[in-house]
Amino acid sequence: MVLRRVAIASVLTVLCAGCNGMRAGETLPRGGAAYGVIPAPDAGASVAAYRIGALDVLKVTVFQEEDLSFDTLSVDASGNVSLPLIGTVRAEGATAAELSDEIAAKLGAKYLVNPQVSVTVASSVSQNVTVEGNVGQPGVYAINGRSTLLQALAQAQSPTDVAKLDQVVIFRNIEGRRAGAVFDVKAIREGRAADPEILGGDVIVVGFDALKGVFRDFLKMGPLLYAFQYF
User: Fold this and answer.
1) Furthest-apart CA pair in the chain: how many Å?
2) Of 62, 64, 132, 180, which has the fewest CB atoms closer than 10 Å, so is most exposed?
3) Which pLDDT score, from 0 to 100, does residue 8 have?
4) Three-state secondary structure along the chain?
């Protein structure tokens, strides 16, 4: 009987600790305020052109100028590319078309007559989203075009059975500063809240439901705890 009481008391202590723990992201905006930081997609807006990021790999073609063309040209960590004749060119933040025009202008200023330049993104590092926490398969996932929170979570094999669905945090760099907001995935799934748009470089963290986790572990301990009833 004594051992049984000790076992029950221990479980209750753990449960209470899980209930009273600090809520993840409690200082970040949530509810309606969250969408002021991480908005939902604008259905009426056209898809924005992709902007080149640091460490992306580009293909640069200068018509009839093989020595000035590259199948793979990496953007460095500072966001620049280096090209023959014209040297360093800022690539980060520009679209492929804007960078094409910039390179053509620099080449045309001194070296070529009416150069025809084409830039395409061969591979994109900055078009990845990181999903961490209580999902089936945490990791880094590529996103193509527009993506939303639910789509990103689906890529990570969805939240686990001990995920805290009302404590899913999206972190984003906005104008050089780190920002974050908390979303309720259950409300989004049920259509009671909008599905926020995910951008390249975002980090999603799915919280842990301590109470669910304790009950899951409690059930796993079933055969051991069952033995206590005989004391």
Assistant:
1) 95
2) 64
3) 40
4) CHHHHHHHHHHHHHHHHHHHCCCCCCCCCEHHHHHHHCCCCCCCCCCCCCECCCCCEEEEEECCCHHHCEEEEECCCCCEEEECCCEEEECCCCEHHHHHHHHHHHHHHHCCCCCCEEEEEEECCCCEEEEEECECCCEEEECCCCEEHHHHHHHCCCECCCEEEEEEEEEEEECCEEEEEEECHHHHHCCCCCCCEECCCCEEEEEECHHHHHHHHHHHCHHHHHHHHHC
Q: What is the mean pLDDT of residues 21-45?
A: 75
What digits encode the pLDDT tens for the residues 79-91? 999 999 999 999 9
Q: Helices 2-20 & 210-220, crossing angle to 10 degrees?
A: 150
Q: pLDDT tier at 4 (50, 70, 90 boundaries)?
A: very low
Between 108 and 11, name the one with better pLDDT.
Answer: 108
| Residue whose token pair is 């995910």 | 198
Query: Where do we find the tokens 């989203």?
Result: 129
Is the Cα torsion angle 151, 157, 162, 168 positive or negative in sign? Answer: negative
User: What is the pTM (predicted TM-score) of this model?
Assistant: 0.61
Q: What is the pLDDT of residues 129-180, one digit of tens each?
A: 999 999 999 999 988 777 899 999 999 999 999 999 999 999 998 877 889 9
Buried b / exposed e over 40-73, threshold 16 CB at 10 Å, is eeeeeeeeeebbbbbebebbbbbeebeebbbeeb
Separation CA 92–CA 66 (nearest Å):
24
> Residue 231: what pLDDT?
34
Assigned token pair, 169: 């945090």
